[in-house]
Amino acid sequence: MSTLLELLKDGRFHSGQALGESLGVSRSAIWKQLQLLEAELGLVIHKVRGRGYQLASPITLLSEAEIGQHSSSVKAWDVRIFDSIDSTNAEALRSIEQGGGSPILVLAERQTAGRGRRGRKWVSPFAENIYYSLVLRIDGGMRQLEGLSLVVGLAVMHTLREHGIPGAGLKWPNDVLVGRKKVAGILLELVGDPADVCHVVLGVGINVNMQSAEEVDQEWTSVRLESGKTVDRNQLVARLSEVLVSYLERHKRNGFSAIQEEWEQGHLWQGRAVSLIAGVNKVDGVVLGIDRQGALRLSVEGEERVYSGGELSLRLRDGS
Ligand code: BTN
Prior knowledge:
Blueprint: H1 3-8, H2 16-23, H3 27-41, E1 45-48, E2 52-55, H4 64-70, H5 72-75, E3 78-82, H6 88-97, E4 104-108, E5 130-139, H7 148-162, E6 168-171, E7 175-178, E8 181-192, E9 197-206, H8 223-227, H9 233-254, H10 260-266, E10 273-278, E11 281-290, E12 296-300, E13 303-307, E14 313-316
Parallel strand pairs: 3-4
Antiparallel strand pairs: 1-2, 4-5, 5-9, 6-7, 7-8, 8-9, 10-11, 10-14, 11-12, 12-13
Helix pairs in contact: 2-3, 4-9, 7-9
The structure holds biotin.
């Protein structure tokens, strides 16, 4: 992390002279670094003659030590925190290629090419949200992959409910919504042979303190907008990790069928009239629930049909 940002993160005024003295550089060098912080990280810095420089709002940066204080699971993992990266999922995949032992947790303050499902972009501004990718090794068990992305969604929903969003719920397969607005998304990526040894990246994006983002192309909200409070991202990462580990253990021990009912209880669109979209194809039906593998059960023209696959998406039908 830039030392200049470390000095400014308290959100107070700092004179150019004091900053220059702390970093052992000239005032004009400070000025240049400030321009870079604004241009590269999208930060807003107030510059007031006679008072100095101030971040528009104070920021708390991600810290492995802080997270580890609240999560014994994270303490045991290989944690990698980046100021800026293309995508934490992409970095997690690179770490698998390089043969890093799992679990590896990749976190970033911002992503320049955050990936969403179905080729969408995940808007990822600096120091506002959580961009989280956990690498796990899966040994010979298709069963361990069944419903896995839904289990991650459940863990995120549970964590957000604990953090002042009682209305957080799920939308198949793994969006976390408040009402119609998306607060978190999940993207799983797999490398290797699912029937033998493979690695899975559990990618989680949570809108935490973000209050505006014109580029997001769907209805969205954030923990802060819903709860009215600024949230400590380190504590949220820690809690998410603990809840996730506990769900993953249950899933590994008993399979997805043991979690299916709990997932359906959190599903906001149970019984709703929906359209299921797969590319240019569309099927209208009513949501019955999910099966023991996490596939969607729809009633279509009075008959039950089952759908699964990463490229599918659900829409509510008008008036439902
Ligand atoms: C979705 O479209 O709902 C899935 C969004 C997943 C975003 C997260 S942010 C952390 C991780 N890194 C990425 O590039 N994507 C996932």
